[in-house]
Amino acid sequence: MKIATFNINGIKARAEALPAWLDVAVPDIVLLQEIKSVDEGFPRDLFEDRGYAVETHGQKGFNGVAILSKLPLEDVTRGLPGDDSDEQARWIEATVVGTTAVRLCGLYLPNGNPAPGPKYDYKLAWMTRMQDRAAALLNTEMPVVMAGDYNVIPQAEDAAKPEAWVDDALYRPESRAAFRRIVNLGYTEAFRAREPRPGHYSFWDYQAGAWQRNNGIRIDHMLLSPQAADLLRDVQIDKDVRGGDKPSDHVPVWVDLDA
DNA sequence: ATGGCTATATGTTATAGA
Fold it and tell me: CA A99, C1' B8: Å apart?
């Protein structure tokens, strides 16, 4: 079961690049972030024509997450629990049943800049809520995959120029500590578990020739519960997508699970 | 670099992103 996460930075703007990648990579599941669309505006046909079931949790203008799946999506829930007043569309869950049932969580964690400030406070509070949800999911003892744009650079080796990020919400100590607290509940960060070396990124800014200079950061992650980690066959970053036509500023990250 | 680019809606400018 090939499961991917991809921050597409606008579904309408990626109407060509996303299907092109799907046709080459042929993932079973894709967790999308930043669809920047309401549910009614999501071009479902593009994906249903390719055999994907589609579930969206959209919002006008920005944010928004979605799931594409070649297997039926069951028990779909929208929104991160813990704050009924939170109207930002950043979390969606569903279950797929292959050889075993897998719980999928697609997430778009708040950016948090400028820090300090109310946006940073929202980011850290959101991460506390996510920690609660992550702990509850562990108690199910299901294979769980929490994948998305975490907007966290976990360690210095996850940035080409870590010194440029020291005061940024993506790299500040509180953000990294909150990320570690979630991982340390018992999750495996799939890419880092298989690739200890530096120099692997999932985002390159549109500005200042960041892609051409390989000035990237690794902020798109896939966290696996112990039951999911036991099924891990492979994990990769599809870096070449960043060099394609009209690309997102993020690239896909995927795992292959024996499920 | 005090965001140099991109996307969307609020739309010929503002907001957000990272």
Answer: 41
